[in-house]
Design brief:
flat
Length: 184
């Protein structure tokens, strides 16, 4: 159905004048102009559909070719090791090299790695907290030692924290006393 370029309402053909008229805004448009625009829009939609269909067909075709290549490789080379066995053997032989490559990758992609770890910890917060709690319950001594070591190393900070807590209590008592005297 043809639409008005001005208000997008339906157009009606006036055959005696060879023009289209908008039923809402009453503007007149030449027949040829409206039909050319409609044809161009139709062609544009068809081109987009054809591109999507081509991409889908191409993807299916490439998947079929990959499967055929894999089947031919298996047919002529036979089965060697299973991927799991091969992977296990490779990791066993190249442990240090893999660790070094992982370390280099993490250094080069530090922001991405940090973001990935943060997302993981957000998604699995409950599981991680439960595991940490179990670890502390099963072996509480390292936790106690690390807290004691931190307190010993940061004794000035701990004193300041204590003073802050003391002054907060005093301030609260004064505020309550002032409130009671004012309302009492």
């Amino acid at each position: 159905m043809l639409r008005c370029p001005n208000c997008s309402y339906k157009l009606v053909l006036l055959s005696y004048r060879l023009k289209y008229k908008c039923a809402l805004c009453s503007k007149l448009y030449p027949k040829k102009e409206i039909e050319v625009k409609a044809f161009q829009e139709f062609n544009k939609r068809r081109r987009l559909e054809d591109i999507e269909n081509y991409k889908k067909e191409r993807k299916d075709y490439l998947a079929r070719i990959r499967k055929i290549k894999k089947d031919l490789r298996l047919l002529f080379n036979g089965f060697s090791k299973t991927p799991k066995k091969y992977r296990k053997e490779y990791y066993g032989n190249n442990k240090e090299k893999i660790r070094q490559l992982n370390k280099e990758w993490r250094l080069m992609n530090r922001e991405y790695d940090l973001k990935r770890k943060q997302e993981y910890s957000k998604q699995n917060r409950e599981i991680l907290n439960t595991k940490a709690k179990l670890r502390r319950q099963n072996n509480p001594e390292p936790e106690r030692q690390s807290k004691k070591l931190w307190r010993d190393n940061n004794i000035n900070i701990m004193k300041i924290y204590g003073m802050i807590q003391h002054y907060r209590r005093k301030q609260k008592e004064l505020a309550l006393e002032f409130w009671n005297n004012k309302n009492g």
